[in-house]
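From the pipeline queue, job 12 of 40. The input is one protein chain; the requested action is below.

Action: predict structure.
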Amino acid sequence: MSPPDALLTANAAATWLMCGVIWFVQLVHYPLFPAYDRAWFRAAMSAHQAATQRVVFPAMVLELGTALALLAWQPAGVPEWVPWLGAALVGVWGFTTALVMVPLHERLAREGFDGALHQRLVRWNWVRTAAWSARGLGCAAVLAARLTEPG
């Protein structure tokens, strides 16, 4: 396997892991927040942040690193715009995470449950869900095209 193909495979694996995580969070985890006991909600949010970081941080760093590396070392046959689109989508989830999601989670952990904050969290998470889903589909399309290439 060539280095660009290895990058592509690692990038797809990290992206697909995060696709699974983001859909689970959006459809299962976040909808449960209003049902949490208000007395321990802040502690639950702090525990949620710590546990989630251990799972997602390595995958996000791997995805970011491989997406940037693919800008320099493109696999043969992959159109030049594909890695740039992938990197742009990484930017979408990255900036949304850093500038919106982390501050919202910190406020929920500090202030306790707030319905308006919760709704904002869910709405903004759809942006990340869309970005990761688009990346996942893009990775699948590129890998499928690579697998069906002659020779």
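Job complete. The CA atoms of residues 28 and 86 lie 26 Å apart.
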